[in-house]
Amino acid sequence: MAATMTADRAAIRAAVESMSPDFAALVGEIGEGGWKKKSSIPEWTCGQLAWHVASSTTFLAGQIDGKPLNPPAFLRPLLYKVSEFRVRLLSRKATPASVLTDFDAGKNRLLSVLASLDDDALNTSTTMMGNTHTVGEMFQVPVDHLAEHAAHIRAGLKSA
After folding, report:
1. Structure pTM?
2. How far separated are the first and last CA of the chain, in Å rounded?
3. Mean pLDDT throughout 7-17?
4. What does the angle CA 21 – CA 27 – CA 31 come to, to the nearest 5 degrees?
């Protein structure tokens, strides 16, 4: 009989909590002066990526708490384009202060979702955007997402 892995609630909580100082430092590096500077993803500015990370943290909390988005593979490229348009449109009025507030709200929602789940729920498998994870592993998605885009933002800020 195979052993069942149990999600480490304390490790998940620590990873989620560690995002706040990392994101705050990143937004501080961008500052007002780097907000409209292109990131290393040419289509996105540093400010747009910061807004994207902040808003997606709340979105991902909802995905963990509810039924994860898992459209057929042929629709995913269209969803990514819609998401890109959404970011460009909704991030227009974003400021460093507003994305910090939004990010903290998303992080707090993640922590609230974590607290609401029992160990059985954390160890249940689910599929989001074609990737299957346990619910506990899904809490790593926003952590990895922040790290991925932090690299894009910092690379953009370094190029001049």
Report:
1. 0.89
2. 58
3. 93
4. 140
